[in-house]
Amino acid sequence: MSAIKLCVIGTGLIGGSLALALKQKKYCAEIIGAGRSEATLKKAVELGVVDHYETSPENAVADADIVVVAVPLGAMHAVFKSISTALKPGAIVTDAGSAKQSVIMDAAKSLASHFANFVPGHPIAGTEQSGVAAAFAELYQQRRVILTPTDKTSTDAVNAVTAMWQTAGAEVECMSAEHHDLVLAGTSHLPHLLAFGLVDCLNNLDDVDEVFRFAAGGFRDFTRIASSDPVMWRDICLSNKDAVMDMMRRYRDQMDDMYKSMEAGDGEALKQVFERAKKARDDFCG
Ligand code: NAP
Fold first, then answer.
1. Which atom of ligand 1 is found nearest the CA of 131?
2. Mean pLDDT over residues 189-214, rounded?
3. Choosing a second label site near 122 at 20 to 30 A (CA), which of 101, 145, 254, 270?
4. H helices of 173-266, where?
5. Which of 174, 194, 224 is the last residue before a domain boundary?
6. 103 and 187 fall within a common domain
7. Does 72 sit in the ligand 1 pocket, CB within 6 Å?
8. Is 278 exposed, middle or buried (0-12, 13-18, 19+ CB in 10 A)?
């Protein structure tokens, strides 16, 4: 067991699963939890996710070597601000937020001299469940974690955070925050908007019960992520607004083209879209 003291602020699905994975691997000497409600923190101790907790983030980070901030994007700034003067010299701070440019701006504004030891991160793993009870140690096995260091980020801090995620079972890649936000807007943020939007659209139909009663596996597959946490997804969409809106425009243009093909009864045009999409997905899914 190493002597590392880890603090996890936000012991929900993402922070809780990381804590459980790291405990299993005996990565650290102790894990301190912090967050919003004491009820969640008590539950985190009961479930063996953290060793103990502090209700104030300042107290929680005071002795920590690595601090993982896994709260909703809208809460990042306040959390960074509350811990900035309490961190010990050399403490490393990282986060798990699903958009990176906004978190980097929040950290740059609030972490002051600790900003060089801040490593922005995003695990590409999750489920539609939230909360500490949904956390499980295997969540990051063979999943990717993207780190988006800035030109001010210390290499030692990046190496330490890389080692932490690798211990939890993940593969770590580095890229720019701009690139991350663009890629994730297309592959994660837009799909969530589509799922929420489709379910809401059908829910507004007069015979909605009939529609949902006959919904089959394809509908369930497509809309599973519409069961995700609404507050979290509001924050993600607004935090990555420009890139998400760009993807929405592209998708709207695609829908407009397909609508025109339908209107014209142009089956060939539709078939070409479906064939291109099927090939791309089959190739991607291996
Ligand atoms: P979650 O299960 O809802 O957990 C969020 C945790 O943050 C809870 O412990 C919550 O405490 C705490 N929290 C909420 N507001 C807070 C505040 N103002 N101050 C301090 N703590 C606060 O959410 P999650 O799925 O773990 O997501 C956490 C982060 O990971 C988000 O930034 C999200 O973008 C990112 N992420 C999520 C996924 C995913 O699929 N879920 C994947 C990758 C990255 P309470 O229980 O007391 O509310």
1. 2
2. 92
3. 254
4. 177-184, 190-203, 208-213, 217-223, 230-239, 241-263
5. 174
6. no
7. yes
8. exposed
Q: Which of 73, 124, 126 is nearest to 102 (CA)?
A: 73
Predicted confidence (pLDDT) per residue in 44-66, tens digit: 999 999 999 999 999 999 999 99
Q: Cα(199)–Cα(222) distance, rounded to whole angstroms? A: 10
Q: How does DSSP classify residue 51?
A: S
Q: Domain total for the chain?
A: 2
**Atom number of ligand 1 nearest to Cα 73:** 32
Find out whether the beta carbon of 34 lies less than 6 Å from any atom of ligand 1.
no
Say yes or no: CB of residue 22 within 6 Å of ligand 1: no
Q: Are residues 19 and 145 in the same domain?
A: yes
Centroid of ligand 1 to alpha carbon of 29 (angstroms): 24
Domain extent, residue 224, equals 179-285
Q: Which of 141, 174, 207 is the last residue of a domain?
A: 174
Please state the rounded mean pLDDT for residues 239-264.
98
- Mean pLDDT over the full length of the chain: 96
pLDDT, mean of residues 36-47? 97
Instruction: Please report which helix (H) or strand (E) contains residue 277, including its range.
Output: helix 267-285
Q: Please list, residue by residue across 14-40, b when 16 or more beta carbons sit within 10 angstroms of its beta carbon and e when fewer do.
A: bbbbbbbbbbeeebbebbbbbbbeeeb
Q: What is the mean pLDDT of residues 86-90?
A: 96
Same domain, 73 and 210: no
In one letter, which amino acid is 97?
A: G
The two three-digit tokens of residue 174, written as one number: 């580095």
